[in-house]
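Subject — a protein and its fold
Fields — amino acid sequence, structure tokens
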Amino acid sequence: MWGVSRPARAYRHVMSAPVEPVAAVAATDASTVVASLLDAADRLPMDRLAELEELACVATGARRVRIYVADYAQHTLTPMRRDGESVPIDGTMLGRVFQTGEIHAGGDVVMAPMVEGLERFGVGEFAFDGLPPNAMALVGAVTRALLLIVVSKRRYTDLTLRARRQRPLTASAEMQWDLLPPLSCEATGASIAGILEPAYFIGGDSFDYAVNDDCLEFIVVDAVGHGMPAVLKSIAAITTFRNVRRERGGLAETYDAIGRVMVEQFGQSFYVTAVIGSLCTTTGELTWINAGHPLPLLVRDGTAMGELRCVPSMPMGLGGSVREQQRVTLQPGDRLLVVTDGIIERRADPSVSIDRLNDLLVRSTLDQLPAPETLRRLARSVIESNDGDLKDDATMVLVDYHGRQRDHV
């Protein structure tokens, strides 16, 4: 029999119809357990989000359930309730579950990734007194439900955001993280992922994207300066990009609009560099503008193809117009990496850093690593190669083109 712990029983009062432990409903499938959990969580007050773990104990018959959250730098996994030690992502089983996205069972413990599409939140750990027959399927389904609950309710509490911190976050970094879209997204025909470093001190770097029908639109920006002044410029640039995009404007309109906002709000001497792109996920046609930014890197068939050339336009805010909208047709399996100059600025020859970046990107492609894990490892390598001391903000955005056929009616 799989008993329910005393703490789990104590939380039955939040449910009008208590969830029965697995021992009492062994024949019940995972969908029924998940439905009961969702029903109970729907009545959970926002100030008691941490009690989700107890609800999961009751729902599954687990002795203990612990939700681990990845920190901003994606170096560690920390219990959401801060009732245990943080665990490194590299070199641990919890970390491996986070990296691979695969459920793992060992002894009486089952670990499941908390993933929404490609967006990685953390790991759910379920400890049983003897595994139920359907443990893997049950834990997988309940973990997905827990993630949906946390995502829908986290706007009302700082619980998960506090768990993401391994050190104090600067106010400018707080603003940038709040500005970002989800760090990764899977669409039909393509996926995109981004990462910011140094995670706790990030300033003027940012990125944004949206998937509308068969179009993936994205921008990677680097604002001049550091700290709060740079953040305010990147916020203005990203918000303007969103406004033009939602009004169905094109790349040139985006470039012009951001340039005007820079001048109007900050004056003639302030600017942002950027790569602004649009990928048709049906045809693979990529169109982009280079506004004084490092050129994107392309990997095709497991080989580094080097930089994609585009005549640079002036950084936005310094005047001028679009000099070139470059176009290239991506092939299924192509990977496009866009970086800010903090990635390639080193104490030594910058070309060494670019070569190293190309090599790491190729190796991760051959290892068939998904975009989020590729970027996590690239970021670690960049930081280590700079002795843990980046000269500037360093941002990377990776676009994977998978290819798809146009739907036929």
